[in-house]
């Protein structure tokens, strides 16, 4: 059963130029919590806040988490579940924890002479490969691990296999090793955004040519073309796969499913283009950062805008240039054009912290990523570098119940590493909290 089986495509609009959140939005219920079984990492920085209770089926869940059946979700493959469990186990080990005594290690990949320039990039969740979107409309996949890509056998060969054999999963693929890299050709415009599915068998690419393409990494073929009809800014899979969100150049955010060629939802609350997009970890909400300087949270089930995060005191800081939700689902980290990094608390519906650096504006989209234990958030700095901030300071500020935003708090900024004129497009924390980063040199 999918979200669209009993609900038609609907358009929800509440356009407004008011910066302050409407009062009715504050009254709307938001399930910002994440079910314990769905955690991709252990949120060690906020354990005291976590209040677990046992549901009727005996599974532990966070008190503010949505019901598991609220949004129809596909079942995760067992291989993905095992990988998540291993990731959680590694995140809980103190030896991998980032601190002042144990600074992070960063592995930087610099791209040279990209065709038409490098427009976008994304790492797979396990760090085994990276996808790059080029200005010449091509999508390139590079393997970072030692093994090579596997190629699925042709349909005629697959029909001859015995589906009952134990080795069926291995026999489906060619015996010869595949390539270390592959290039996908299909778009006719720059590729602005990319997103891997949770099982790393599918890849979404969004282009200026007003199409979203779904690529199968087993067959190296384009399997579906989605046509929103307008140039795209962002595309993002939810962490369970199947559903994905996209933003187009008409200030619209849409919800899609991989097996439907038309959107399930259209959200048109924004008054300007939504250039930053993120799926909430519990997959019940889509979060968008707009050129109108407002962050909005939409409910996937009802289509309602349940939260609006904006503040007149930072209205002159410019549009949002980066956006990411914490793994626990409670905090939002946003980067603003004029060089400000802010932490928002969805539980208290207010901004907690600000790190100001007006001398280095974020002219373009900047990557934001959380460490595996979620105690550190990394932000790509405007002038060729990476800054690391402590989420433990943000958690402490949330518990203090302060009315005013804390600006440049002590201990918030942890580390700052510079690159040799490489502008970063994506970053990723491995299971052992090694940072993978990729960018284009002198672009």
From TrEMBL:
Q: Where is this region: Disordered?
A: 50-71
- Give start-end positions of Basic and acidic residues composition bias: 52-63
Every copy of the WDR11 second beta-propeller domain together lies at 305-355
Q: TM segments?
A: none
Q: Organism classification, top ranks?
A: Eukaryota, Metazoa, Ecdysozoa, Nematoda, Chromadorea
Ranges occupied by WD repeats: 184-225, 267-308, 313-354
Q: Which domain of life is it from?
A: Eukaryota
Q: Which SUPFAM superfamilies match?
A: WD40 repeat-like
List keywords of the entry alphabetically.
Answer: Repeat, WD repeat
Q: Spell out the protein name for this chain.
A: WDR11 second beta-propeller domain-containing protein
